[in-house]
Amino acid sequence: MSSRTPLIAGNWKMHKTGFQAVEAASQLKRLVEDAADVQVMLAPAFSALFQVAQALKGSNVAVGAQNLHWEKQGAFTGEVSSEMLVEAGCTHVIIGHSERRLFFGETDASVNRKIQAALSAGLIPVFCIGETEAQREAGETFSVLDKQVRDGLKDFVFDDLSGIVVAYEPVWAIGTGKTASREQAQEAHQFIRSLLDTLFGKPFASAVRILYGGSVKPDNVRALMEMPDVDGALVGGASLDPETFSKLVFFNN
Ligand code: PGA
Known about the structure:
The protein has one domain (about 5-250): Aldolase class I (TIM Barrel). It has helices at about 20-30, 50-55, 80-90, 100-105, 110-120, 135, 140-150, 180-200, 200-205, 220-225, 240-250; strands at about 5-10, 40-45, 60-65, 90-95, 125-130, 165-170, 210-215, 230-235. The protein is globular, with a radius of gyration of 17 Å. α1 runs parallel beside α2 (about 50-55), α1 runs parallel beside α11 and α7 (about 140-150) packs across α8. It has an eight-stranded parallel β-barrel with strand order 1-2-3-4-5-6-7-8, surrounded by six helices. The protein is built from eleven helices and eight strands. Helix content is about 40%, strand content about 15%. It is an alpha/beta fold. The structure holds 2-phosphoglycolic acid (PGA). 2-phosphoglycolic acid binds next to β8.
């Protein structure tokens, strides 16, 4: 395991109404109140952010959004700005999740603008990258990751990016029950870290946290977390039930 403080992040996607989200978040808050040396973050739907942030006030569970718009305000029907997220109580925001890339036309260029917007508002971006099954089978995993990282972080310098979190999520492992083996995860994480070293230098690359995402469950989390470049998990399905999610937070027990 790495010396970086692990982050276990739950992405609730389009699940849970405000009331359901508050109930689950309050339960999680109690379950993880004694968690030490680990950070926890929950990303509910936009409509539940404010309520969940209120329910988690003063706890060790941070709140994140699942997306944002890069502009501060304007005629962008259906979009939400960084300032709105901050006021709702968010400290984090997931950017470039594969479902947004796949279903909503998110590109490396829009991801880049969103990372910029998040950082200027003081939000911690959780920058998601990952290859599809076809890309892996074609031997393109590293070239895909290389492009996503270079273009997603284009025009940034080391200082701008402090605090950013990267999430490696092989698309073929998301919601499929097919987890990458811990060796596959480590290999991708190592590749990403060495690319970040090339682009931004060693102090940045050795401090940045790289989360693994894709069918993380209580029975595989520990093995993944034992790998030297795996610094946490971005969890979909297994974050919906507070009991199950709390087992991921206590991966070390
Ligand atoms: P999963 O989702 O844990 O359900 O595979 C991960 C994610 O999409 O972040």
